[in-house]
Design goal:
InterPro entries: Uncharacterised_PGPGW_TM
Largest sheet: none
Radius of gyration: 17 Å
Order of helices and strands: HHHHHH
Keywords: Membrane, Transmembrane, Transmembrane helix
Number of strands: 0
Pfam family, one: PGPGW
Strand content: under 5%
Number of domains: 1
Shape: elongated
Structural class: mainly alpha
Protein name: Transmembrane protein (PGPGW)
Helix content: over 70%
Length: about 110
């Protein structure tokens, strides 16, 4: 468990750096701790019931075959939504343009 907590601490220290570097490290630390501690599992379940939108990305990253890219994309869009106004969200517009281009290619 100590190794898991050290990995989580490392992820928190890396998190302010540019890029998504801290989140996967924190998720890895959570996986290590949750597999070895009943107490941590109970706390995680409580957090999941209290704040399901916050815990869900970590649950997706802790699966056997995690969907890493979609989780990070969703979290980036969520962060953009919290910071920027509706009209000034470049990632959301980029996603819509990609969708239109992909549909045009498939037809």
């Amino acid at each position: 468990m100590a190794v898991g907590f050290l990995v989580i601490l490392l992820g928190v220290l890396i998190a302010p750096l540019p890029g998504p570097g801290g989140v996967p490290v924190i998720a890895l630390g959570l996986v290590i701790v949750l597999r070895n501690s009943w107490w941590a599992k109970r706390q995680f379940i409580r957090a999941q019931r209290a704040r399901p939108n916050w815990v869900y990305p970590f649950r997706r990253l802790m699966r056997k075959k995690p969907e890493i890219a979609p989780v990070f994309w969703q979290q980036t869009l969520r962060a953009e939504k919290m910071v920027l106004r509706r009209r000034r969200r470049p990632l959301a517009r980029f996603r819509r343009r990609l969708r239109r281009a992909w549909r045009a290619l498939r037809q």
